[in-house]
Specification:
Blueprint lengths: L1 E3 L5 E5 L7 H4 L6 E7 L3 H13 L3 E7 L8 H13 L7 E6 L1 H13 L6 E5 L2 H7 L4 E6 L2 E8 L4 E4 L9 H17 L2 H9 L1 H4 L7 H18 L14 H10 L6 H18 L5 H13 L11 H8 L11 E7 L2 E6 L3 H11 L2
Parallel strand pairs: 2-9, 3-4, 3-5, 5-6, 6-9
Antiparallel strand pairs: 1-2, 7-8, 10-11
Helix pairs in contact: 3-4, 4-5, 5-6, 5-9, 6-7, 6-9, 6-11, 10-11, 10-13, 11-12, 11-14
The structure holds nicotinamide-adenine-dinucleotide, the ligand O=C(O)C(=O)C[C@@H](O)[C@H](O)[C@H](O)COP(=O)(O)O and zinc ion (ZN).
The site of nicotinamide-adenine-dinucleotide has 31 residues, from helix 4, helix 5, helix 6 and helix 11.
Length: about 350
């Protein structure tokens, strides 16, 4: 459906059944493929592996642990060992079949093996389709924080098959909506209108606006990364809500879903912008309305500020001692807030526990 014209331009396909067509997009001359998948996506992982073999590719299925447990140096190292044992060369390919955690890991392993081999992404969560699999940001976590090691490595193709969303647990689908809503606040307010028109339908993969919501969010992401792949400036807007959100994930040892943490992080960013006199109160309220309407969290308990602030200092947007946040001046008018005062930060944090 859309082409991302960055480096070697690539397609992001959004079509029922497209996850069965990996062979069509891996490119010419591929002899081997490593199909990375979690146990939850074993059936699809094996289906992709079998289909590749039927097309003459030496394909290997590589099961990895679920969720954030996949995004570790130990798991990446195991996959490098598999690639080494099977003699993967620069014309071979890695395929990521799973949620954002799997596409981040598969992309990182592809980015680092032989300093870069192609990766094809087959996202199986809403979040993976609208955000993680598109744009070439890859990475793993370290003990000190989220996504601290990684690389920009655009995929060869992205196959978003909405049919696979039927098995996704509702809570994971809703978590993905946080990134959809993010795209609405930073660039495309029509997304917010579509969600507000029927919030309950927005939480279902068979809802009347599902494809339009996915397509619009992918378009936002593709347009931004096409202009600024390596996040020298514009791409930072895709990080809306993530400074505080990633801090929550870190202090809670990844027991909370990424999308849920980002939802709270967007409310924090909105409250911070309001405290700094940048954003009007009604837009802050709109954050709570839209996120709450689809069942996403918007509050956070008191008492953890010191840990959260320490984690935020390791955010990639931080420059020296200066904390930097993506904030809004209005819907679809993102800007940056550099070095907010302690009082502004505390005001925003306190507002989360109301
Ligand atoms: N690289 C990027 O640009 C980018 C963007 C956004 C998020 N991310 C990363 O993505 C990750 C979050 O991704 P996520 O929300 O997809 O979580 P996830 O990958 O942990 O998947 C959520 C859960 O759904 C299960 N699952 C996946 N697909 C399924 C299906 N079709 N049916 C049944 N179960 C299924 C998984 O096994 C997992 O338990 C975070 O690590 C985040 O940092 C990266
Ligand atoms: O693509 C981007 O750029 C984003 O910031 C998208 C985010 O939704 C995503 O969670 C990303 O992985 C965060 O990246 P990080 O650089 O803050 O680790
Ligand atoms: Zn995110």
């Amino acid at each position: 459906m859309s082409v991302v014209p960055v480096g070697d331009a690539y397609d992001v396909v959004l079509e029922g059944g497209c996850s069965r067509r990996v062979s069509d997009v891996i490119g010419e001359g591929v002899r081997r493929a490593l199909v990375v998948h979690t146990h939850s996506m074993r059936a699809l992982g094996e289906q992709v592996t079998t289909a590749l073999r039927a097309d003459g590719v030496e394909a290997y299925a590589a099961p990895v642990p679920d969720a954030e447990d996949a995004k570790t140096a130990a798991v990446a190292s195991e996959l490098w060992a598999v690639l080494g044992r099977h003699g993967f060369t620069r014309t071979d390919v890695v395929v990521g079949v799973g949620g954002g955690t799997v596409t981040d890991l598969a992309g990182f392993v592809a980015a680092t093996w032989l300093r870069g081999v192609p990766v094809v992404q087959v996202p199986t969560t809403l979040l993976g389709m609208v955000d993680a699999a598109v744009g070439g940001k890859t990475g793993i976590n370290t003990a000190e924080g989220k996504n601290l090691v990684g690389s920009f490595h655009p995929p060869r193709a992205v196959l978003c098959d909405p049919d696979v969303l039927a098995t996704l647990p509702r809570a994971d689908y809703v978590a993905g909506l946080a990134e959809v809503v993010k795209a609405g606040f930073i660039v495309d307010p029509v997304i917010l209108d579509l969600v507000a028109a029927d919030p309950d339908a927005a939480t279902r993969p068979d809802g009347p606006h599902t494809l339009e919501l996915i397509e619009r969010a992918i378009r936002v992401k593709a347009d931004v990364v096409s202009v600024d792949l390596k996040e020298s400036s514009l791409r930072e807007i895709l990080n809306y809500g993530h400074t505080f959100g990633h801090a929550i994930e870190h202090v809670e040892h990844y027991r909370r879903r990424h999308g849920e943490a980002v939802a709270i992080g967007m409310v924090f960013a909105a409250e911070l912008a309001c405290a700094a006199g940048v954003l009007a109160r009604d837009v802050v309220d709109r954050h709570r309305e839209v996120l709450t309407s689809v069942g996403l969290p918007t509050s956070y308990g008191p008492g953890r500020w010191d840990e959260l602030e320490a984690a935020m200092r390791r955010d990639k947007k931080t420059r020296g001692a200066l904390l930097r946040f993506v904030v809004l001046e209005d819907v679809a008018r993102p800007t940056r807030l550099e070095g907010p005062t302690t009082e502004q930060l505390h005001t925003a944090y306190a507002a989360l526990s109301h």
